[in-house]
Design brief:
This protein has 539 residues and is an alpha+beta fold. Helix content is 35%, strand content 9%.
Length: 539
């Protein structure tokens, strides 16, 4: 949803211009509610959009121009609506109210989607225990808690006078001819079943007894398949397989009366509830994490920003990528806090005052700390953890990369190209380096004060994740597996520790969010520092 860089001048090449009329103030400013945008990101998006619309104002005097006709309402309304969105999002109380309302809508949408699954499952007029467990698995993928799903199931059963029954055992009778409601899986089952996602999805389709699917029903089944962990294409293929199976069997549509869809009952959103075990990342679950884990400022004055749970493709296949960035691997990470900016000299020297003598000659209190080894960075985290009674550590490289590039796996934290010097501090004309880019002027000959490049912030609001200083990560270097993984951590023992992000000495290609580098734990340099992570757990 973020603003493209640069924003296309032609509205025919950019659908985002229409967002000015949205009822969601985040969407009006082309911001992602889930990314928890910072004040600076809100201000910058509003500024860029106002400039875009301002350039279109001459069209008001050209009523016959096709673009004027396309944009006509926005030419009058967009500036006011954008300014209003900026105003409400910058007010903490109003923004909190907006966030709660968006969470309520996400809860209602997840409940309505779950009721679709429930309706298909109850076609037979009863709910088997193993089918109920499948429903809990599906609903968990939507972000609903087991308790919330139980309420929805109980309400539906009570409404239709249905009841729960035991598992579908091997002794279950054969399906009655012409009665799709009695069709069971080809294989006898015992509880709890152990089925692949494909088998479970096909079983759910057979339970529905439907011979023809409307577009809405097909979409609902596709969502069901995706909730089981399949791709949309695989779900479509299995739906086609099921319909062909029904056609070849010559089974007529069920004569049994179909019960109508029942609106999802209201669900309390007072506090997030425990969900089924396993990795869950859905719009609802991420919104609940945002409510539960508010951003905070630590004792050193550093802002800690939430990165909600999510999945992304880790690594890169671009022509600039090195072999250690491959194979590209689907990676899931659970919610965590990450420092908005790298640790500064002033912050680090609260822990180690003697470090002042090791400062780079050009650096003041606000520059990122350098000449710190991996081991020293870890000790700093332990020191801060003991004083705040929170769990601080270095980020794993999976956490670091997700925070830097977001779920859309962009090339750089801000987007897919480095075309102007206000995005990061890297090797430009000010650095006396053979590979410096003489066409760019970042304004700094070495490190820069943290936060000097707000336009280069990541989707989650972290600054300086590209350039300025490399940042130590928790892991040792290891190859990517190519198979999906959740919260991966490299080996804790090894000769080389990862650092990420590039530095003021780096070529632009080294600033890519997927770039990996490493060195010995005792290594220190004038372009290597770190930022801290805080785990999302009670104090």
């Amino acid at each position: 949803m973020g603003l493209p860089n640069p924003i296309p001048d032609n509205p025919l090449k950019w659908e985002g211009w229409k967002n000015y009329a949205s009822t969601d103030p985040y969407e009006r400013l082309c911001l992602d509610f889930e990314s928890n945008p910072t004040t600076e990101q809100i201000e910058e998006s509003c500024r860029l959009l106002l400039i875009w619309w301002q350039k279109k104002l001459p069209l008001k005097n050209q009523p016959s121009n096709p673009l004027a006709q396309l944009l006509r309402n926005g030419l009058d309304d967009a500036p006011a609506k954008l300014a209003e969105a900026r105003s409400v999002l910058l007010d903490p109380k109003t923004r909190a109210d907006i966030d709660r309302e968006l969470l309520r809508k996400l809860k209602a949408a997840a409940s309505a989607e779950f009721n679709k699954f429930l309706s298909f499952t109850l076609t037979s007029g009863e709910l088997a225990t193993d089918d109920e467990e499948s429903l809990y698995q599906l609903g968990g993928g939507l972000g609903l808690s087991r308790e919330e799903m139980r309420v929805l199931i109980d309400d539906e059963l009570d409404h239709w006078g249905m009841k729960r029954v035991g598992a579908r055992h091997a002794s279950a009778p054969d399906p009655e001819p012409g009665n799709p409601a009695s069709i069971a899986s080809p294989e006898p089952r015992t509880a709890p079943p152990t089925l692949s996602a494909r088998e479970e999805f096909l079983r759910m389709l057979r339970l529905s007894g439907i011979d023809e699917l409307t577009d809405d029903q097909r979409d609902a089944f596709c969502n069901m398949g995706e909730a089981l962990g399949m791709s949309g294409g695989d779900a479509e293929d299995i739906i086609d397989e099921y319909l062909e199976e029904r056609m070849l069997a010559g089974i007529p549509a069920s004569a049994a009366p179909r019960k109508p869809q029942v609106p999802a009952p209201p669900v309390s959103v007072a506090k997030p509830l425990e969900r089924p075990q396993g990795f869950v990342s859905s719009p609802l679950s991420r919104a609940e994490e945002k409510q539960k884990f508010a951003n905070f400022t630590n004792m050193l004055g550093g802002e800690m920003l939430l990165v909600a749970s999510g999945s992304f493709m880790m690594g890169s296949e671009s022509r600039d990528a090195s072999p250690n960035e491959q194979p590209v691997t689907k990676t899931n990470v659970s919610a965590f806090y990450l420092a908005r900016r790298p640790i500064t000299n002033a912050e680090y020297e609260r822990f180690d005052p003697a470090h002042r003598s090791k400062r780079a000659p050009w650096a003041n209190d606000t520059h990122p700390v350098v000449y710190v080894s991996f081991t020293e960075a870890m000790r700093f985290c332990d020191w801060l953890s003991a004083r705040e009674k929170r769990k601080y550590r270095l980020p794993t490289e999976a956490e670091w990369e997700f925070a830097a590039r977001g779920a859309d796996s962009r090339i750089f934290p801000w987007g897919d190209c480095l075309d102007r010097p206000n995005l990061a501090n890297f090797a430009d004309r000010n650095k006396n380096l053979p590979w410096a880019d003489e066409s760019m002027d970042t304004g700094f000959s070495a490190t820069s004060p943290v936060g000097s490049f707000p336009a280069g912030a990541s989707p989650f609001g972290m600054e300086d994740m590209a350039g300025n200083v490399w940042e130590w990560c928790l892991d040792c270097m290891m190859p990517y597996p190519g198979k999906e993984r959740t919260n991966p951590r490299g080996p804790m023992e090894g000769s080389k520790r990862i650092y990420r992000g590039g530095s003021w000495k780096s070529r632009p290609t080294s600033l890519r969010a997927s770039t990996r580098n490493c060195n010995a734990s005792a290594f220190s340099s004038n372009d290597v520092g770190f930022r801290i992570l805080c785990e999302c757990s009670p104090k």
